[in-house]
Amino acid sequence: MSKKSLFLMLAAALTWAACEKDPQPAPDNNDTTGGEQPTVVEKNVYSVSADKQVTMAKGNLQYQASTNTWRIAPNAWDAAKDGNCQTSAVYAGWIDNFGWATSGYDNYHPYLTINSASQYYTGGNIDGTEYDWGVHNAILNGETLDPAGTWRTLSSQEWEYLVNHRAGSTLNGVENARYSIATVNGQKGIILFPDVFAMPESVAPPRAASINEPATYATNVYSAEDWALMEEAGCVFMPSAGCVNVADNSMVSVDYLGCYWSSTFVGAVEGMIRAGQLWFNPYQVETASAGVQYRRSVRLAKDLK
């Protein structure tokens, strides 16, 4: 074999070896587009039982009949209020007061205004069923359309645990801080504090006497800028949106009373077919019940894995 042939064979072998595996670039310590990404820490975490946690929607559930669109309100303080009195099958505005279990399934529509319990679902709890607004519907959440089943309604027992029994952080000297009555961006309501919470340094903490206790809406007042920081830290705000008086289709107790449905069916009590609710005003925060035809707010939750 000539020297020239031997040289060509050696060159080919070296070329094959070099191409057998793609060369790996040297690590770039300034590269932020690849490699391991930092773990996202979920701050909006609320225990609803001893062994279950959820993340809460940042706004109330709203519905637009003209487009058959469900959404989570863009802002925590958003409330349709008198707009709920305009509801119909073709109404182009947004409503956020609903009869119980009116997800649209089985002709129990969110725009029902009939003052008769017999026209509403009374078959039992709606946990995990199509009668639950979050289970049955795809829901617009900011720029994202969450598929049906992403969200759900808390049971009465879960609401009770969330506001009265779960362990929480110490806030302004108060252990297990769970909620505080407040006004946010001019809207009265209640702030829920996540299980693990640290008040943003630039925002004044709620007054100690108002944490887990009744208080006037003027006790703690926060701006939209304050709330942006509190929401980022995991807080949830639920407005005192009032409710609809089905007798004359008018709003009552707006900016005073907050009424939020649960998924729990109660049944006949004092001559009325009822379902469970969380309700609050400056004097009390508690779980109770209301007639299924009475229209109330809905705040959805998502199970954490």
Q: Mind explaining what this structure looks like?
A:
The protein is of the alpha+beta class and 305 residues long. It has one domain (46-303). It contains four helices and 17 strands. The chain has helices spanning 3-19, 133-136, 156-164, 224-232; strands at 46-49, 52-56, 61-64, 69-72, 139-141, 144-146, 152-153, 179-184, 187-192, 221-222, 236-239, 243-245, 250-252, 258-269, 272-281, 284-291, 300-303. The strands form six sheets. Strands 1-2-17-7 form a four-stranded antiparallel β-sheet. The chain has a four-stranded mixed β-sheet with strand order 10-8-9-11. The chain is globular and about 50 Å long.
End-to-end separation in angstroms reads 69 Å
Give the % helix: 10-25%
Class from secondary-structure proportions? alpha+beta
Low-pLDDT windows of residues: 1-35
Mean pLDDT: 90
- Tell me the number of strands: 17
Integer tally of domains: 1
Task: Give, in spatial order, the strands making up the sheet with the most strands.
Answer: 1-2-17-7
Bulk shape = globular
Strand content: 25-35%
Q: Which sequence of SSEs, written as H and E, runs from N to C?
A: HEEEEHEEEHEEEHEEEEEEE
Rg: 26 Å
